[in-house]
Amino acid sequence: MKMGGLLIRVWVAACLIFLAAPIVVVIFSSFSASGYLRFPPQELSLRWYAEFLSSEAWLKPLAVSFVLALCVAVITTAVSGLAAVAISRRRFLGRGAFGFVVMAPLLFPHAAIGVALLGALAIPGWVGTLQGIFLAHAILCLPFAYRPLINALRGFDPSMEEAAMSLGASPSFVVRHVTLPILKPAIVTSLIFTFIISFDEVTVTVFLIGPKAGTLPTQIFTTIQESASPVIAAVSSFLVMLTVGVVFLLDRLVGLQFFSELERSR
């Protein structure tokens, strides 16, 4: 029994090392002084980070990705919140089908979604535009915004709102000081998850980019097809550090244990 437990621990440790190894290789390669990707680097240098942070070819798609992800996070969270309120507190025809439609982007390959959106967005002429990319990202992020909010509302006790209104509180006061504070963990989770997913999305976006509309991940994808410059490793390391920072922020704001609570509430 003890030997079996030891083997399980060794297997889990090996899997974790295997998953983390590519990230470690990329991060160390980004500090190489040579003009090509090399691991381990013979000399350490920050030249590729300097090139990344001083080049408009990288900073412009970085700004586009950040603003786009921020807009997607705010709007999808707001729309999902309103939809979750309607689903959890009202009964209407098609209520069950609505939840399936919202979660549908998780059921199809992103390549298939990209082809479908390419055809659909070509009708209004939105291919190669930021509004087309925004709509695609919003569709992909909707399930990740909706699920924490609907689970939180299903566990929400309406009697708390009723108690506040029975004491003379107005509906707007109840929303600001009772409902929103209780739903804060779900709202923060929705915002951060949708921001990360939109910021890192590349599979669907490559179908919709154009000369005046591109994101940082698609710029990485395009550049890596043309060259193997270590600047790609520097940009990728930046994205890894950004993601780790956002997860750390999530842990500080609502705690990662919130996800186990969501699973128990399903």
Rg, please?
22 Å
Class of secondary structure makeup: mainly alpha
**Tally of alpha and pi helices:** 11
Helix content: over 70%
Write the CATH homologous superfamily. Answer: MetI-like
Question: What is the count of distinct domains?
Answer: 1
Which series of helices and strands comes N to C? Answer: HHHHHHHHHHH
What does the model show?
It is a single chain. This protein is mainly α. The protein has one domain (55-265): MetI-like fold, CATH 1.10.3720. It contains eleven helices and no strands. The chain has helices spanning 2-29, 47-54, 56-89, 95-103, 110-122, 130-154, 159-166, 171-200, 216-226, 231-253, 257-265. The mean pLDDT is 81.
List its traits.
MetI-like fold, 266 residues, mainly alpha, single chain, globular
Quick rundown:
This protein has helices at residues 2-29, 47-54, 56-89, 95-103, 110-122, 130-154, 159-166, 171-200, 216-226, 231-253, 257-265. It is mainly α.
How are the secondary structure elements laid out?
Elements: H1 2-29, H2 47-54, H3 56-89, H4 95-103, H5 110-122, H6 130-154, H7 159-166, H8 171-200, H9 216-226, H10 231-253, H11 257-265
Helix pairs in contact: 1-10, 2-10, 3-6, 3-8, 6-8, 7-8, 8-10
